[in-house]
Amino acid sequence: MSKMILLKNLRNATRGNFFSISIDYSLQDEKMKIQEYAKELEQEGFIKLKECKQLEQAIFLSGILKYASN
User: Looking at the record's lineage, which domain of life comes first (predicted)?
Assistant: First the structure.
């Protein structure tokens, strides 16, 4: 998964400007990448994370979609 694919998934999961999504991962390395990409998107000003927590085989992200260009 790349950072832009994560952003696209977040935009598809929005209700208004709010999003909540659970993303499955198969490897420990993928988990770290997803969290890293989410933090990069937050630093770049695309999203504002409210919650980022690890479930058994998924990462749960929720927050606000600030601005995303196509």
Answer: Bacteria
Band (67; pLDDT cuts 50, 70, 90):
low
List, in sequence order, every residue forming a beta bridge with 65; answer none if it has no partner: 47
Per-residue pLDDT reduced to its tens digit, 25-59: 888 888 889 999 999 999 999 999 999 999 888 99
Q: Which residue type sits at 54?
A: Q
d(CA 44, CA 34): 15
Please choose, from the candidates 56, 42, 51, the residue with its C-alpha nearest in 3D space to the C-alpha of residue 3. Answer: 42
CA 35, 5, 42, 49 dihedral sign is: negative
